[in-house]
Amino acid sequence: MSGTFVGMPAFPEAAREAVHDQTLRGNLRHATHTIRAKRRTAVAEVSDWAELREAGKRIKDHTLRHLDRYLVQLEESVTAAGGTVHWAADAGEANRIVTRLVKETGESEVVKVKSMATQEIGLNEALEEEGIRAYETDLAELIVQLGKDRPSHILVPAIHRNRGEIREIFAREMSEWGRPAPEGLTDTPAELAEAARLHLREKFLRAKVGVSGANFMVAETGTLVVVESEGNGRMCLTLPETLISVVGIEKIVPTWRDLEVFLQTLPRSSTAERMNPYTSTWTGTTDEDGPRNFHLVLLDNGRTDTLADEVGRQALRCIRCSACLNVCPVYERAGGHAYGSVYPGPIGAILSPQLRGTASEIDASLPYASSLCGACYEVCPVAIDIPEVLVHLRERVVQGGQVTREGNKVVLRPAKGHAAERAAMRAARWAFTRPGALRTGQRLASRTRRFHPRTLPGPGRAWTGTRDLPPVPAEPFRDWWHRTHGGKDETK
Amino acid sequence: MRVALFLTCVNDTLYPDTGRAVVKLLNRLGVEVDFPVAQTCCGQAHYNTGYRYEAEPLARHFSDVFRDYEAIVTPSGSCGAMVRELYPRMGERARAEGRGDTLATALAPVVPKTYELTEFLVDVLGVTDVGAYYPHTVTYHPTCHGLRGLGLGERPLRLLRAVKGLELVELPGAEECCGFGGTFALKNADVSAAMGADKVRNAASTGAEVLCAADNSCLMHIGGTMTRLRTGMRPVHIAQILASTEEEPAA
Ligand code: SF4
């Protein structure tokens, strides 16, 4: 994924700063609670939501199971419709393909529709190195780009910014990139939106190359689908002469009919809208209308490896609605940057360690970035059991085992740094399979209870830094049971 | 009916009052309850931290201890969910790893017979008014594994509403996790503490004297945060409220 994240510290350290940043906490709390409530209402309106969720899950599972077949079908239909299909095994290959395609047009700038896949591969940075400027045209994405910032949310990448901060960024940075912000810009939403509109308009009208992702690809017809709210997508997809779409291979659906399900569940889950304002579909190229050249870059980048894992593969059902982020109590407090990936929140915690592996500090810590409260699973429109995958990935971290990397089966060793924990878990298992040992430990704790400190040293400080310890009772329950025969001989 | 109390290792060691309350309550409702002394731990902490192989012998031990009872009652939503939801999954995983059916078969008998306390009261005994008396203002926090894992729904609230003298006040943001999450509380202490503090602030805003839940692990975290933040509220397990009577009132 993007080089920006190399060398990220583990999640707990990365989150610490965010937890204590009151402005950020306020911004995130306000934004996530608002969208959370709206989503709940939008979903409650649909009487067959549970069935739609199940249908979405099944369509995705079926497609993933027969992905080889559907990918070939897609390639054939896109080619038949006048498009060109490219296959990219990893980020580097995808970036090279896109760079070459842009250079072949002789252009040195592109307009972009918000796309997670191009963020994942760090396309903007790769193009920059080759002297090609990529302009983000989604409002929130523009804010991130102008602010030289990193995205912190899938759908609202600038969710960590409030209006005042956005005004600041516009006033300061817009002139560097093109049309400056209007004089005396205030932080009212209408003025900010107008400033962005004017700034972007000249880019749309000038651009000869557009770069996008896609929400769905329909195998039977070779049609790509982008859903969005601002109309910038429609501009980027129709005005340029050349359109290059970089799409993860898991974004396929077999037929148009399957879209029926997702075009209901996606907008309600993501923006809490009944229907998203713009749904653009295109099939190859059409004479006298839209781009003359269409290139589809199909991106693997760890996806087939993920597909090889029986438990983890469900992460590939994700339609990037971001409902799981909005409802996540950990995301709300840690913010998106702590996840060290363009995929933050619960989905990021299960996707990044699969796409990138668990070798780095951040990726090995992500499966633990959850209290397993299950709120994400409850809202997920394709029923990804995120807690199940988190626990599965924790096993991978502490126990090691077989995984697939770049198509090859490899055996991972248990991660370092868990030795003390592993010993403690073993010791506990030993005691818990011997009730006598447990009783001895309990009695010891009860007898020494007057000497227990209120605060603990070492790792125990993680608890007592903010919370008191419960007092240890004079006798454990089992001794009381034994002494009183289940309370029958209790003398009051 | 032969009913066993699975108290859980945490309650046995740290919260014996909860165990005594369950026994008292069930006896009052005419249920003879046994406490098989060989019981230890369901293996939840092991499983959820990634040590599934260490959890397997604990699950087998659990099944050995409890399999002959007709019902297994536990005053913990998360340990109940461990047995009901995750024991079958452990069996499936072992099968998928080519280790055959033995684990699944060993664990199968206890899965459908394990009930969280409020489920047992409402679904099996069919009571919502347990004849309790508790003259205090109470707010109820539905713990995540009870709420989303077991789907306890309204059961605890129905039981609490029937308690004489009890004034139930709604907890804002009730369904948000308190931040305990087992080893999460240690591994991600800052985020966990922030979640706990928000939960406690919400609880304090109700003006209730007592925050009630059906899981002492979460209450240990919430209660530890309450005393540290000096809110003056106290955490009480639902069993202790339901066991309380006019003759023998609980605090
Ligand atoms: S995991 Fe589910 S809820 Fe989260 S973004 Fe993906 S589809 Fe949406």
Describe the 3D structure.
The complex is a heterodimer of chains A (492) and B (251). With 492 residues, chain A is α/β, with parallel strands linked by helices. Chain A has 2 domains: 3-299, Rossmann fold (3-Layer(aba) Sandwich); 419-485, no CATH class. Chain A has 23 helices and 12 strands. Chain A has helices at 11-19, 22-44, 49-65, 67-80, 91-105, 116-120, 123-129, 139-146, 163-177, 189-206, 232-238, 256-270, 303-307, 323-327, 329-334, 345-355, 361-365, 375-379, 386-399, 419-432, 435-447, 461-464, 477-484, and strands spanning 84-88, 109-112, 133-136, 209-212, 216-218, 223-228, 242-248, 252-253, 278-283, 293-299, 401-405, 408-412. Chain A has a 6-stranded parallel beta sheet with strand order 1-10-7-4-2-3, with helices on both faces. In chain A, strands 8-5-6-9 form a 4-stranded mixed beta sheet, with helices on both faces. Chain A has a two-stranded antiparallel sheet with strand order 11-12. The mean pLDDT of chain A is 93. Chain B has 2 domains: 2-124, Rossmann fold, CATH 3.40.50; 137-243, Rossmann fold, CATH 3.40.50. Chain B is 51% helix and 11% strand. In chain B, the strands form 2 sheets. Chain B has a 4-stranded parallel beta sheet, sandwiched between helices. In chain B, helix 11 packs across helix 12. Chain B is globular. Classes of the chains: A alpha/beta (492), B alpha/beta (251). At the A-B interface, helix 1, helix 15, helix 18, helix 19 and helix 20 of A face helix 1, helix 2, strand 2, helix 3 and helix 4 of B. The structure holds iron/sulfur cluster. Iron/sulfur cluster (SF4) is lined by residues 269, 318-324, 347, 379-382, 384 of chain A.
